[in-house]
Amino acid sequence: MIITYNLSGIIKYVSLFILPVFFSCYSPRYVYSPSTQHIPLVKKRGDFNVGGYFATGGGSSNIAHVGSQNYNAGMDLNSAYALSDHFAIMINKYNRWEKNNGANDFNIGDSSIIKYKRGLTELATGYFTVLRNHSKKSFFQLFAGVAFGKFQINDNSVNNGFHFSKFHNANIAKIFLQPAIIIGPQENFTASFSSRITEVFYNKINTNYSATELDNYLLTGLSSSPVFFWEPAMNYSYAFKKPKGVRVNLQSGFTVLLNKRFIDYRTINLALGITVNNDLFKKKVTKNGSTIKPAISTLL
After folding, report:
1. Does pTM surpass 0.70?
2. CB 240 within 8 A of CB 246
3. Which residues contact 93 (CB under 8 A, 6 or more apart)?
4. Does residue 246 surpass a pLDDT of 50?
């Protein structure tokens, strides 16, 4: 009996087994995590929004990573003020504390525990206007801004009984363009869609990873060129009747890498927060001419 072997077929089936094992043992070092996008509800001069969000989510650009000890938590603070009936400014603060571990399912994997600390301050200016033929219930806005901060990676691993500590710290600068549409079919409810384009620059990198480790973790040449992302987000906002001017916001966002060069990054941001606007401080005038104290007075 003569048995013939199809070498290419064997390689194909072996690779189907080996590749999942290889990638499941790789622990990504995330160099980016998306922020909560501020989509301020300003309609005229003097309007302002101030809010805070608890953010979570995570996701992974490395879909084969199966690490179990993961978290992504943060706090975002946002503010906006309308300088005129069509122009406004924003100042936002972004903070994240994250963790992921090595996928060690086959006992040959990456034993690292990687923790992250990220912080950014965003400054932006933008244009807003009412969309025609929508009874002043829908708005368009376009904000352009910059951000500055730091991303820190702390990497602790065990190898043959010895503990190793690695780090990778970088200064971050961002440029972003954020067009958004706000639809308010009801006075107390709005739905918003944002389509942010972000350009990220890494500089002043300080690390004790070896050259080989930088290559393995896709960190080599990180500061050589900017990284581009598309970050669409949906935001739903509900306003309370009392106190007036307080809104609950729920946002979901997704991040897509636009560069050909691959890096590891977080893909999902989920945020729940509360914002207040100038309605909280307004006095209401009744038909008989009397005034009602602003809603904020009921909280004091």
Report:
1. yes
2. yes
3. 76, 77, 78, 119, 120, 121, 122
4. yes
